[in-house]
């Protein structure tokens, strides 16, 4: 019987990555990088793996789901496995260990649960905030609104500091709010996928620690894990919640949350019962500990295939080139290149300044006179899928491009070059079309026989 | 650009199925079976699809996850797609439509949410039962305990009728309970995966309708959809909740729930707010309606790849041979064959009578003197994966075999034959080992130099 391989890269890809790995040793070297042979699954690609190629498809450059590797997709097609089998348990356990490594934490507690990123909010609201307790939401877009909504659903008293559109909440506003009221948690969206606004995670955590050290710092990192720098222990974060389908380069369907031991203590000493069943850490904590220690346990069936896929993605991120630090640098460089290009095309970005602009996505206003219909379908015809706006008040005014994971780090794919070229072409076509139309409109003043509807 | 195919079967498999499809037209003919060409995705297998084979692996015959087809796994390896794209929306919409067809319902409302089956309990408890309302749980095993626990978490006042181990709750007990108190919901586990006990879904629904017609009938069908007969409209069910990894033959990670319009009305007219965020139908109902009508909508990113896989599985179930009715018959026949074989081997089943024994799984006590260690690892060595016990009080006393999906309906796989042969062999080996041991033990009375630990 062949044992199946979920850890492998094509030799070409591996070589390409290795060629960019000559950078100095990363600062994270104090966190030992696992030796590949300590991992549970074999590292020899099977012959089937080396031939698996995903089908030709349109280039997906929305801010999640993102393009993923053939290896990850092949792992998602793993034959059915028992969720409590000796073969599967260490695959799950390795995900927990590699996730810690990626977030630079020694002892924080990961939770891997079938669900979307949204389920992370429920976990925070139901496990860490008791009904009637105060929560402060730093709102930099659509996902701040939603996190508030979720916290209120579970009984929290929520205050919000709402940043101006395209900006992040300032640290001085946060500091002032913390001085006025005691909060059980402060939440922020590291990258708000609706606006592409990046919050200063390190600064927020430092401010909370300084003014209100008991308050838990909750980072919604759905659109930032593995594309933006996150240093869980050094920065003093208490929760990082995310999902599989963005920087982590895995299909969607996995809610990923990492909680500090301080947060676990707060959960364990809460006075009232947890207000969710499926999202209850009382149920999940023993399961996560069991899987990590290599023993079977059951609460609900984990998404086994997706865990294989996630394991493969985490190995590519933490065990292969580029290093985690290099990965951050490559995301910054790719982002800078795309942002420079859109500026050259005359497009204005949503983030009001570069310090609050995400490195894994770019959000731009449509040029004057153009709408989504002028840009998005023409790009689609060129086999490039970008995203429309999402923020409730502005969604018709802008579009979003994702550049996370392999689209950002593997320059041989030329994903961002393709996007820039297609965008340039589509904008020129749209402008030319508008000019022709306005020419026709001027003609119409003379020739009134042309029905207006046809314009 | 090639369009990707998620609906295809190998020609050989299709022919084998078709050869058994000469049965008379099923009674469900009044529910029109969709014409394949009305479905969104193409029906031509691509060349890549026709060559994809899952890797050799141990035969998985636990009561879920189950063995799945190559086509389903290949769909799970679909390239990344936008969750709001024109390509993906009808794939999701078709899942909703085919699910109705499978459950024989005209207008019930499906919910497809990233999560495990457990999330279905949260949906019921948070959307249909208001805090302080009465719920009656018909408890036929481990999953009855858990459903009660979930209902209480969201504030329901729960009464339970606990069946004797290996039996289902009787309809007369249900009737008596309904006459004593008014319940918002009655819940039951159609097949309790921990015991293999089958409840009389039709009889339970009829009893509730007769005695307490306003009470909602909630069926936990995680281990019964597509393996046991379920007639949603005819029987008057209000909720069927299930998961992807059992009879539906899809990898785990999808919570699937179908609610009657009566249940939706109860939800819509509730007095208090819904007590979950991620599980809130207030959030999900507009999304499900949008996907079904072919328009994009967003609350949380759906598990796109798993939806492709589920779509493929549902097409195999509802559009190909065998028909849905034939599928039920084949599950009954396979089950009867395995149950007859284990009886011949002298094994006693957990269900106290055949009328309460599931058709998709079999639970047997270990023979006297043997334990899990005598049976499960030897079967594993023969590349067959069965499950240990799960019920809290009896889990060391029995084992479970799953026979759902392709293991039940595709006789060319010979899955159940392999299980029977391996079980017979393992039992004989274990008995021979015990006999040898007891012979050695008798010898030890004379030779006391042998250390006991080595036995």
From TrEMBL, chains A, B:
Pfam families named among the record's database cross-references: Aminotran_5
MF terms in GO: alanine-glyoxylate transaminase activity; L-serine-pyruvate transaminase activity
Keywords linked to the UniProt accession: Aminotransferase, Pyridoxal phosphate, Transferase
EC number: 2.6.1.44
Source superkingdom: Eukaryota
Statement: the UniProt record of this protein carries the keyword Transmembrane: no
Gene3D superfamilies: Aspartate Aminotransferase, domain 1 (3.90.1150.10), Type I PLP-dependent aspartate aminotransferase-like (Major domain) (3.40.640.10)
Ranges where the Aminotransferase class V domain occurs: 73-391
SUPFAM superfamilies xref list: PLP-dependent transferases (SSF53383)
GO cellular component annotations of the record: peroxisome
Cofactors, names only: pyridoxal 5'-phosphate
Gene Ontology biological-process annotations: glycine biosynthetic process, by transamination of glyoxylate
PANTHER family, per database record: ALANINE--GLYOXYLATE AMINOTRANSFERASE 1, AMINOTRANSFERASE CLASS V
Family label: Belongs to the class-V pyridoxal-phosphate-dependent aminotransferase family.
Stated name of the protein: alanine--glyoxylate transaminase
Source lineage: Eukaryota, Fungi, Dikarya, Basidiomycota, Agaricomycotina
